[in-house]
């Protein structure tokens, strides 16, 4: 079982050695990846996903429990190690949601696929702004519904210990509930984000600049206090968002704003 993942520094876009020599990720923790557009966030995720072995553009090396994966690891286990959810992913199978979940459970005998499909659907609806119906076609799900179902799926049904998520703030889901769900199931979660709420939700922030890891910021006690305020604001925003979606006027809105 994987307990920790480590990135050994490579080089930035200018061929300069990264300032951060290494960074270790442990299960049950959330880490955020921040930086300007084009700073290298996606490339860092790609290095992790392919278990980069010191080659490629960045020359970074990924270690599993302190060791470099052998050839047999790449062939047999990599696909079960990492789940990657991007903002551009959508379902392409034209099948009702519940039928799809039941069918997939039938096709897999592994213990990792032992969650009742109804529970998966119910949990996904806790994250989604709009309820997913059992007979709704996968191809007709909204972006938020798709992302809610995907995140729930990897949290409940997948043995993959590492979850990579790209800009979940644009997915139209309850971000806090999504992160809490993944933490609860002892995943190593890395989130690339521009959102202050998600950025501070991570125990550590990896700052990317010019294609390289420039520094690691551990969440301070002051930032924890700010995070609590941002969560409170987010809760109130969610209430107003629900009112608007339901066609209601924002009565008492002054009481909702901090």
TrEMBL record:
Protein's recorded name: ABC-type lipoprotein export system ATPase subunit
Organism superkingdom: Bacteria
SUPFAM superfamilies for this protein: P-loop containing nucleoside triphosphate hydrolases
Classification via SMART domains: AAA
Keyword match Nucleotide-binding: yes
GO MF, one example: ATP hydrolysis activity
A Pfam cross-reference name: ABC_tran
Annotated keywords: ATP-binding, Lipoprotein, Nucleotide-binding, Transport
InterPro entries: AAA+_ATPase, ABC_transporter-like_ATP-bd, P-loop_NTPase
Family: Belongs to the ABC transporter superfamily.
Domain ABC transporter: from-to ranges: 2-236
């Amino acid at each position: 079982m994987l307990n920790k993942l480590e990135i050994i520094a490579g080089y930035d876009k200018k061929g300069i050695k990264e300032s951060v020599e290494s960074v270790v990720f442990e299960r049950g923790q959330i880490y955020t990846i921040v930086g300007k557009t084009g700073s290298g966030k996606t490339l860092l995720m790609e290095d992790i996903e392919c278990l980069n072995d010191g080659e490629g553009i960045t020359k970074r090396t990924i270690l599993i429990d302190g060791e470099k994966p052998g050839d047999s690891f790449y062939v047999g286990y990599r696909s079960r190690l990492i789940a990657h959810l991007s903002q551009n992913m959508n379902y392409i199978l034209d099948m009702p949601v519940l039928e799809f979940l039941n069918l997939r459970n039938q096709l897999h005998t592994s213990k990792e696929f032992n969650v009742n499909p109804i529970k998966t659907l119910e949990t996904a609806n806790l994250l989604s702004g709009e309820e997913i119906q059992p007979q709704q076609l996968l191809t007709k799900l909204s972006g938020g519904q798709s992302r809610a179902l995907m995140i729930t799926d990897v949290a409940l049904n997948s043995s993959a210990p590492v979850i990579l998520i790209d800009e979940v703030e644009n997915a139209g889901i309850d971000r806090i509930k999504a992160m809490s769900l993944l933490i609860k199931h002892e995943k190593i979660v890395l989130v690339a984000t521009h959102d202050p709420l998600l950025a501070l939700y991570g125990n550590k922030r990896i700052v990317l600049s010019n294609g390289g890891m420039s520094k690691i910021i551990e969440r301070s006690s002051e930032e924890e206090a700010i995070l609590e305020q941002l969560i409170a604001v987010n809760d109130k925003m969610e209430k107003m968002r629900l009112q608007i979606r339901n066609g209601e006027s924002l009565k008492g809105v002054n009481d909702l704003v901090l």
